[in-house]
Known about the structure:
Number of helices: 7
Strand content: 15-25%
Distance between the termini: 20 Å
Largest sheet: 5 strands, parallel
Order of helices and strands: EEEHEEHEHHHEHEHE
Amino acid sequence: MIFHKRDFALYKNDFCIITGKSGVWKSTLAKLILWQYEVPKKMLYHKQDDMARYSQDEVQKFRRKIWVIFQDYKLLERKTVLENIVYPLSIMWSPPQHKTAKLKKIIQMVWLEDQQDTIVKYLSGWEKQKVAIARALVHNPEFIIADEPTWNLDPVNARMIADIFIQLHGMWHTILMITHNETLKTYIESKTSVESYSL
Length: 199
């Protein structure tokens, strides 16, 4: 899907983990992929196309294929869990029947059945991250970028979040995870096939 010429290749159905200490450009790579920074020539490729040559229309089209799960969640704090999850669908003008069909399965996957009507600001960090994951899935992206998805979670909840990503990989989702947590990387490697890179 994405090829960074010097460092790594990400293909369909891959689970790629990038590790490294703070300040080594891990999150910068995610921002380059999202075009939050201008992409240098011959650095990032999508399906063999140099992304530096993309027009604005091509950039917007490409962005719609990606969903990022941020370390600070980027949720609508005054909205409910369900309202946060369906927000991408409202932007995409997805038909109501499509929403209903997808939502039930996704909400069950991240164990949020009993919290759909809870206001997000009252959730724990672990619960907010589950909402962020569900919101990513309902968008049905070509691939998911998880930027330090367990950075403020205790080891038990971090492993539970990892288990969700492992399950998603088993369902043929393409995942790029950025983390400084070597223990988490080792845990995921023990459960599924992973490509790992260190910056």
